[in-house]
Amino acid sequence: MSTTLSQRPQLKHLTAILDNLKQRGTHFKLRILEDEQGPVCTYDGKKVINLASNNYLGLCNHPLLREAALEATKTYGVGSGAVRTIAGTMKIHMDLEEKIARFKNVEACVVFQSGFTANAGTVSSILGKEDFIISDELNHASIIDGARLSRAKIKVFRHKDVAHAEEQLKEVANEPGRKLIITDGVFSMDGDIGPVDKLCDLADKYGAIMMVDDAHASGVLGRNGRGSIDHFGCHGRVDIQVGTLSKAIGALGGYVCGSRDLIDYLYHRARPFLFSTSHPPSVAATCIAAFDLLENEPERIDRLWSNTRYFKEQLGRIGFDIGGVTTPASETPITPIIIGDGKKTMDFSKALFDAGVMATGIAFPTVPEGKARIRTIMTSEHTKDQLDQALDTLEKTAKKLGILS
């Protein structure tokens, strides 16, 4: 009888870690989606109201995006066949980058295989060990990994604390090397908006590079969803804008926007770009169609914000802790329900699923110990009836588990 890898002692330490997660009640299994990503869908054979998706504008299954994907597949095939720098740059890839650059009001854009690689590949390629990174403590993991890969010296400022960020800059102002200030536009766990305008002031004052990860802001904030830079009126003041094609855009990938020289440099030095096969043409075509929709159907964003305001108001009325005292207050369609204890949070998430609501539990190490939460996300496609049903389920389940009295 052959020995499987799971039985070999070389990876026994992984089993011990998993056992510990199970004992603490924070171990999870992947839920399997059996139909399309929508406000109501089927996971693990159960129909649920979906409060966990990043499909903010319902574009994952929009008929125009489907049509664009099918037409591109018929015309160009299912794959590009190579990395961009060898034989894998198709005209449709260039069309997408030009479309995004115009939308974001910048000179140029480069598309990556994911938002994670866009962040990590950019930070790690533009800085070196003599440089400094001034980073918000709640920045996304891809920023943290990119900072580590760059070998630059990392200085972390308290969340959204601009004065503390300036203290960090003052400490290194006379040191040789470049300085990079980096923040999320919208923070993915708390749903609050980064102080982009005030950090731009610091970048101007100290001659620092300014970088914003707008993954959860693109398609949500600003005119027609142009993001946090547009929201704050900071065009021309942010050197590096990172976005995603996997959330509001409804498909897959990430991108970096900036000057032509920045993008040309990333073509030559960003390792994820250099060593990953380019997007299938169907994905590029889908994203082009999505940006057309952002321009032509602003009512989707209006619906998203209407649902967001209603849902937050009702969660507060019910008595849930949705941030604002010891946790940042949500300002966007991401609204955390703060529970605190990791096991209690995961039990709550499971009970909600059993009752017909998909709302994901988030615990350490994704968030700090004692800050576990149910993260809820609104979309433009939720109906008021669906929201009311979800709210009723949230309230009844929380009372049943003793989370609410």
Automatic annotation (TrEMBL):
Keywords for this protein: Acyltransferase, Biotin biosynthesis, Pyridoxal phosphate, Transferase
Catalysis performed (reactions): 6-carboxyhexanoyl-[ACP] + L-alanine + H(+) = (8S)-8-amino-7-oxononanoate + holo-[ACP] + CO2
Transferase is among the record's keywords: yes
Keyword Acyltransferase included in the entry's annotation: yes
EC numbers, comma separated: 2.3.1.47
Superkingdom of the organism of origin: Bacteria
CDD domains noted in UniProt: KBL_like
SUPFAM superfamilies recorded: PLP-dependent transferases (SSF53383)
Free-text function comment from the UniProt entry: Catalyzes the decarboxylative condensation of pimeloyl-[acyl-carrier protein] and L-alanine to produce 8-amino-7-oxononanoate (AON), [acyl-carrier protein], and carbon dioxide.
Quaternary data: Homodimer.
Pathway this chain belongs to: Cofactor biosynthesis; biotin biosynthesis
GO BP term, pick one: biotin biosynthetic process
Residues recorded with modification N6-(pyridoxal phosphate)lysine: 247
Family note: Belongs to the class-II pyridoxal-phosphate-dependent aminotransferase family. BioF subfamily.
Pfam family for this entry, one: Aminotran_1_2
Domain Aminotransferase class I/classII large: 46-394
Record-level Gene Ontology MF annotations: 8-amino-7-oxononanoate synthase activity; pyridoxal phosphate binding
Name used for this protein in its record: 8-amino-7-ketopelargonate synthase
NCBIfam families assigned: bioF, gly_Cac_T_rel, PRK06939.1
Named cofactor requirement(s): pyridoxal 5'-phosphate
InterPro entries: Aminotrans_II_pyridoxalP_BS (IPR001917), Aminotransferase_I/II_large (IPR004839), AON_synthase_class-II (IPR050087), AONS_Archaea/Firmicutes (IPR010962), AONS_Archaea/Proteobacteria (IPR004723), PyrdxlP-dep_Trfase (IPR015424), PyrdxlP-dep_Trfase_major (IPR015421), PyrdxlP-dep_Trfase_small (IPR015422)
